[in-house]
Amino acid sequence: MAGDAAAGTRYIFVTGGVVSSLGKGIAAASLGALLESRGQSVSVIKLDPYLNVDAGTMSPFQHGEVYVTRDGAETDLDLGHYERFLKTRTSKLSNFTTGQIYNNVINKERRGDYLGGTVQVIPHITDEIKRCILAGGEGADICLVEIGGTVGDIEGLPFLEAIRQFAVELGHHRVLFMHLTLVPYIASSGEMKTKPTQHSAKELRSIGIQPDILLCRVDRPLPENERRKIALFTNVSERAVIACIDVDDIYKMPGLLQTQSLDTLVLEHFDITAPSADLSNWAALVEARRAQDVTVRVAMVGKYVDLADAYKSVNEALSHAGLHTGTRVDIHYIDSETVERDDGDCLQGMDAILVPGGFGERGIEGKIAAARFARSNAIPYFGICLGMQVACIDFARDIAGLAGAHSTEFVPEPAHPVIALVTEWHDLAGDVQRRDAKADLGGTMRLGEQRCDLVEGTLAARCYDDSAVYERHRHRYEFNNRYRATLGNKGLIFSGVSAGDDLVEIVELDDHPWFLGCQFHPEFTSTPRNGHPLFIGFIAAAREHRQTLRDTAVS
Ligand code: GLN
Structural domains in the chain? Predict the structure, then answer.
């Protein structure tokens, strides 16, 4: 197989059985963190068995947030777990869907690459899957490949067949199969049941894959006799049957897996000698959570408030900021239509207000009202992407007196298009980038990491303690530069601009305790270890707000 370039890379394939939502992503990311702490360079790939070419056009209602990589791929939110747990960065080569694999194969067929041969699932689709896996793993010591879905799903079969072939071709010493299953506790009989795990392993074997390691999701300790039974029936060595017990804090997971020597098992399999793991940073995070002494209430005003995963990275970034400021962050999801109806009443008592990114008109006036409420009541405000745009619209209408100010995303020809479609701008290399208003929804956005220059002395520059930063984008509309002078004269501060000063990246106010909107998505780069400067600044301000409220109540 054409894999010689990656001669040294070892591959760990992570599959799931019995039911979905067992935490495959977190388990795989935790293993990755363990391996990194043992000096290995790790890359990750998520293979998704759905037909969408990428996650860009998928509704957050159904699928959770769209995660954006540094190089601008719109991917499954699981890549976010990996970036939060690992030091490695994901890219366009880290997420492949069935749709994308078929798309590649069909494009090759149309080009005539197959020389008139019959194009089939085996070998053409499976070859393409193997090619993508090799590309994603190239250069790393160990590549973790998570297969979405559950073993037994029809749509997952080509992926499983491809990884079976992959192991045959690369040799078993360079490939490891790890399978996550469920060992349920049946209350009426007071027993833990191993049968679903046995069946799941059998299902895998029937397609030619023998798991090397089983991670058993359990809600209580796995008794030794059950462990033995699972090992016996699944052909897995006893020490490779690992109990993945429910944890109250996901940062306990790497430690939990290490106490059962998961990292050592993996390294032994690959015949790698490595220094021992230092998990003190994970222990410090668990400790930091215990030490949180103040709780702040943050209102998250959005559209997808019923599905917590829709704002996964924002939730995580807030929680990281909480770890770094000793603050428990209590997020209150508020439907922007409610704010629209009650004119902000539901925001009373909040210590901070955040309007996250979003698309579509529904609830937009509520988001504008939320920004106004925060601005006029001196409540810390953080607007992300659409959240920055609504803050600009409110400011234009309310402070600059521009009645009818709006974004052309929602009103075709507003009296004052303060947010509008910019069809041309300069990229980092100084080249002109173009966007077409009439193109398909997929692929017309400003996407991925770009440089933002910070204006000295501003809140943004103080938070970052830097003069330029790189942040990730995912949007079509921009602040309209025709309004820069008008709004600037009224006190809106443009504290971050794109390289070359073409586009406004950050706005803020200085007659306010903490009011900042950014056109990019800082949540994608927040990690538990480091937090993110803007989120940390925001939560610190919320904490101060809480304190002031308490002091005023006491005096
Ligand atoms: N809908 C807005 C735009 O396309 C904002 C997008 C976002 O918040 N991610 O510009």
Answer: 3-284 (3.40.50.300), 292-420+478-492+505-554 (3.40.50.880)
